[in-house]
Amino acid sequence: MKQRIIAFHKEFKKHTTVAILAAFAFLIALAWRDFFSDLVSYLIKNFGLSGEVYLYKLISAVLITLIAVIGIMIISKINIEEKQDEKEMKAKKK
After folding, report:
1. DSSP letters along the chain, please?
2. Is the per-residue pLDDT at 70 higher than 90?
3. pTM score, two decimals?
């Protein structure tokens, strides 16, 4: 029973940490969204491209998505490498 409580506590702590990090990531995303939205509006206004606003917002969304996907790929690769290093260190200790 005690092991189940400890396991639950660890999982709860892990999920809480993930939720808090996700909230911070969401705030960061909103900040970048505002920046890119203002940038696109500025470029549309200064280059007189007001007739095709939706096209430029689509391009902006695609670029942001590509940047985010590349960022996720890099972070995932780093995470995999760290887990492999941890496994190798545990294997060496045995």
Report:
1. -HHHHHHHHHHHHHHHHHHHHHHHHHHHHHHHHHHHHHHHHHHHHHHT-GGGHHHHHHHHHHHHHHHHHHHHHHHHHHHHHHHHHHHHHHHHH-
2. yes
3. 0.53
